[in-house]
Amino acid sequence: MKFTTLTTALLLSAPILLSSTAAGAAGPEASYSRTQRGELVHQIVKRWGAHVQEAYGTDVHRWAMEMVPVFAKTPMLALRNAADANDFDAMNNALLSGAAPSLAASDAVPGGLAAAKPRVSAKVLGDADKDLIFVPITPCRIIDTRIAGGAIAANTTRSFDVTAVSNYSFQGGDASDCNGVGSAGSFAAAAINFTVVTPGAAGYITAFPFGTTQPLAATVNYVAGDIRGNFAVVKLDQGASANELSVYSFAQTHLVADIVGYYRNPGAPTLECVSSGDTTDTVAAGATRNTVAPACPATYTQTATNCESSTWQMPFVYFADGICSAQNNSSGSAQLRASRTCCRPKFN
């Protein structure tokens, strides 16, 4: 990651950030200097830009530009916590906890209250080495040495192809891509049921990533003539080689392997946000009303309360937790509308 690339990202994102802040600042947040916000954003991008590019292959300038709406609308306290965070997850959590809907200048009402139904789209990233995503599948055979390849000789290692395979029959498996396994691209680990069939003597097999040192561990222990299975999650080689999995056997034996799922590397997760729908109440002249928005759908979490009135003369006195409270100061009846912005993580 070159320093010049990071500096360019910071310089190009700064004008948009300041413009967004100016358009959306209101209430207590408006008292903070735009220079303070810009400095905190500078710290975040400078500290984590290289990590984003290295871990996710995402251009730091693109990431910084996509994060501008989040930086501009995150409360200063949450932004400061993000800048002070000691690890990437803590920084993301700080930004996510302070995520707020973006408002166009034309959507603002006196006092900075929301008159539109905005959406949240905060960019969050997982850890490419640890936050693997499990994809279960219907069990499918990928290896059967009784059909192809013959028994694994004593004290030898045989390697197998697991990913990027359209037909597993060449190594005794199913004549298909095994319910999408073979077309899923490179993935980090596989969940496999290994079965040894009629080994010539007592011993064990060890499954491990292709091209790595065989670990001092057994995947299946067996005795002579045994038919014995065991389930294991095995890390796979993700290099350029066609093979990803190796299996060592102490004694000569046939091997059968059925895959039941795999663990893929995460993409850069985002927030998937929807509106809860509207509740609309009619408020008589001079009256007050608490309008409660519909609840968020299952698996979604509320991130914003959105209030809208049909007249400028019905100011909001409270808007939080899906409740919009207002007093109608006009001479006629008016409409008060409430909705929630609801979000959940979406993994690409």
How is the topology of this model organized?
Elements: H1 3-24, H2 34-56, H3 60-73, H4 76-84, H5 88-97, E1 108-109, E2 113-114, E3 133-144, E4 156-160, E5 189-197, E6 203-209, E7 220-222, E8 227-235, E9 245-249, E10 254-264, E11 270-275, E12 279-283, E13 288-292, E14 301-309, E15 316-320, E16 323-327, E17 334-346
Antiparallel strand pairs: 1-2, 3-10, 4-9, 5-8, 5-10, 6-7, 6-9, 11-17, 12-17, 13-16, 14-17, 15-16
Helix pairs in contact: 1-2, 1-3, 2-3, 2-4, 4-5
| Main sheet strand line-up | 3-10-5-8
What gyration radius follows from the Cα positions, in whole Å?
29 Å
Determine the CATH topology of the largest domain: Jelly Rolls
Number of spatially distinct domains: 3
At CATH level 2, the architecture of the largest domain is Sandwich
What does this structure look like?
The chain is α+β, with helices and mostly antiparallel strands and 348 residues long. The chain has helices spanning 3-24, 34-56, 60-73, 76-84, 88-97; strands at residues 108-109, 113-114, 133-144, 156-160, 189-197, 203-209, 220-222, 227-235, 245-249, 254-264, 270-275, 279-283, 288-292, 301-309, 316-320, 323-327, 334-346. It has a four-stranded antiparallel beta sheet, with no helix packed on it. A hairpin with a 3-residue loop joins strand 1 and strand 2. The longest helix has 23 residues, at 34-56. The relative contact order is 0.13.
List keywords for this structure.
single chain, 348 residues, alpha+beta, Jelly Rolls, four-stranded antiparallel sheet, 5 helices, 17 strands, disordered N terminus
